[in-house]
Amino acid sequence: MNRNIEDRFFFIKKMIPKNVKILAVSKNQDTSYIEKLYKIGHRDFGENYIQEMVKKYKKLPKDIRWHMIGRIQSNKLKYIIPFIHLIHSVQNLKQISIINKMAFKYNKIIHCLLQIKICNEKNKSGITHQEASKILENKTYKKMKNVKIIGIMGLASFQELEKIHNEFSYLRELYNEYQNKYRHYILSMGMSRDYNIAIKYGTTIVRLGTLIFGDRKKII
Fold it and tell me: How far is 36 from 110, CA to CA, in rounded Å?
């Protein structure tokens, strides 16, 4: 698509069901590109690194909804707690406890997703269904008042089409179970290369970076 960012976004938006939220992954993208989407009404942006997110937060309008989609660095969480909208990548009770403690200081409830490992690639992290269930059933977690798990997230295999279908199908089944048992309402799966498959399996959020912005510019 040889279009500017705004045209690409509108083109993509037409192809995606209205009940599926588009999360524009702005990692390594210049803030001017985020501003272009902001001016046409888009508000949800995802970042992988806390330091980069904080720099952008300081420069950009304060009604942007920032999503943390990268690996969590517990010692840096304090910098995003005052403004974060949703953390997609929680993987253990220690992280949840830290988030709860920090959120208490700001009198906030921080919404989070558990990142489930659905493929065998080494660079894709996450926890098992059993580990997730232990967290959700943990008595300490159930007593926390400033953090809430509201869904799950997963990263599929890079290229093998059959595997991607199987991985998203599995995550959807797990989501159905958690939706009924824990009242979860967010399923975050699907990226620029596989978002159409994720939509088929009922994702509620697709994380789109290069499809919207093109290649990463490594500028903020």
Answer: 28
The CATH number covering residue 79 comes to 3.20.20.10
- Domain presence at residue 219: no
Distance (Å, rounded) from C-alpha 218 to C-alpha 27?
8
Q: Taking the mean position of all CA atoms in its chain, how far away is CA 189? A: 8
Is residue 220 domain-resident? no
User: Which structural domain range is residue 29 located in?
Assistant: 5-213
What is the 8-class DSSP label of residue 215? Answer: S
The amino acid at 170: Y
State how far the alpha carbon of 53 is from the alpha carbons of 27, 70, 185, 205, 220, in Å.
Answer: 8, 11, 25, 19, 9
Residue at 140 is within a domain? yes
Dihedral over Cα of 153, 116, 70, 179: its sign = positive
Asked if residue 218 belongs to a domain, the reply is no
Supply 173's token pair: 């089944």
Total structural domains within the chain: 1
Per-residue pLDDT in tens (0 to 9) along the chain, 220 residues = 447 999 999 999 999 999 999 999 999 999 999 999 999 999 999 999 999 999 999 999 999 999 999 999 999 999 999 999 999 999 999 999 999 999 999 999 999 999 999 998 888 899 999 999 999 999 999 999 999 999 999 999 987 899 999 999 999 999 999 999 999 999 999 999 999 999 999 999 999 999 999 876 554 4
Cα–Cα distance measured from residue 84 to residue 179, given in angstroms and rounded to the nearest whole number: 23
Query: Which of 184, 159, 181, 157 minimizes the C-alpha distance to 169?
Result: 157
